[in-house]
Amino acid sequence: MKMKMQFSVLCTAAVVVFLSLHAVQAKDLRTVTEPKNPATCASLKATSGDESKTIQAALNSCAKGKAVELSSGTFSSGPLTIPSGVSLLVNKGAVLKALPNPALYDLGAKTCGTRDDVGVGCKPFITIHGATGSGIYGQGIIDGQGGETMTGHKESWWKIPESGDSAKENQNVPRLIQINDSADITLYQITLKNSPLYHVATSKTNGFTVWGITIDTPSSSHNTDGVDPMGSQNVTIAHCRISTGDDNVAIKAITAPSRHISVLNNHFGAGHGMSIGSEITYGGSDITVSGLTLDGTTNGLRIKSNTFRGGLVSGVTYTNVCMRNVEHPIILDMEYGHHVTGNLTPEFRDIAFNNVKVLTTGTYTFDGLSDSRPIQATMNDVHIKKGSKWVTSHAKLSGTWAEDATGTACGNAGNV
Ligand SMILES: *[C@@H]1O[C@H](CO)[C@@H](O)[C@H](O)[C@H]1NC(C)=O
Ligand SMILES: *[C@@H]1O[C@H](CO)[C@@H](O)[C@H](O)[C@H]1NC(C)=O
């Protein structure tokens, strides 16, 4: 009898240890605290005209660990590269504008500012590549000028005319900030607006902190994702406000897995929501989204893939989330972009929803591919609005949820 009890206690303890071990790992493994602005190596005042050369020269000669400060006024510039260890600091009141001249960004094929079948003809406005310890700081603004008329064209980056050929509809426009093959990169407090394409994207970057930034771009702009960690690990996105025309945050894995990602205490306005996928071929895991309010996004918590992209998405925890005016509050979809198919098998499992509250009606979708590999999710303390629609196919949902949400405002959704 005694033996048996000890055994079951041991088992319980083992389960608890296992669960808490997993809970501990489902996040950025670093200890992340609020960043501090680096000391400055040079301080620039805006003059007029194209200031690319001045800013780039200051960045190139800045000592590691320090920042080039744009102190006041409006700076206009073409593409910039932030060297390893160096940062850019845009002061409160200063604005850095990306000149809307496609020739400055063209990668050589003279396609930047046009549509074609691939859409990779432009370099980004700001590039961080192979860097360690670089960043972008300050309470100023970086404006991608997506809505301004392009030099030598009649339209803006956002309104490049249709080509008339359905196979050539990819816009060649710059991303605002692209960070590749880097480590220990920080974005702090800066406001980003009007990117022609994605605002921030990383590739194979381990150690990435996005803290207290604002993204404020019209909901009508296409493909203007907020922050997209791709094939990156140890990522924290905290205390940000993101309103834009596409995914507010999208975790992707096109060339490497994305794992250990914490999305903490953020607010999303317009946009397509908190996404994982659809390009998640290398897998996404150990992701925690906690303290999120969404007001007026089209989707809320979304995981998307298809048989063309495949990918295993596992160990994802959503905690303390509150939504209002969201059409699809939860959408786990393995048939994203219905016509995009291939031979891969996406898998979504070990997905947990804890303390999720949705104050307005919406459609909840759990659309798996087969009963042999259903979508597996657990609901705990999930309160939705009466009259919502629930669509499940090849999904195994456990736990409980109730149509008992009341109230009209989200407050801080348990944000700390
Ligand atoms: C993530 O951070 C932890 C803790 O600092 C570190 O041990 C690990 O190597 C990091 N992972 C990557 C891929 O850099
Ligand atoms: C950065 O990574 C992206 C995505 O992998 C890639 O498309 C782009 O060409 C890379 N840029 C550079 C400068 O390596």
From TrEMBL:
Keywords: Glycosidase, Hydrolase, Signal
GO terms assigned for molecular function: polygalacturonase activity
The keyword Protein biosynthesis is assigned to this record: no
Residues annotated as signal peptide: 1-26
Catalytic residues (UniProt): H272
Pfam families in the cross-refs: Glyco_hydro_28
Gene Ontology biological-process annotations: carbohydrate metabolic process
PANTHER family given in the database record: PECTIN LYASE-RELATED, PLASMIN AND FIBRONECTIN-BINDING PROTEIN A
Homology family: Belongs to the glycosyl hydrolase 28 family.
Name by which UniProt lists this protein: Glycoside hydrolase family 28
The organism of origin for this protein: Peruphasma schultei
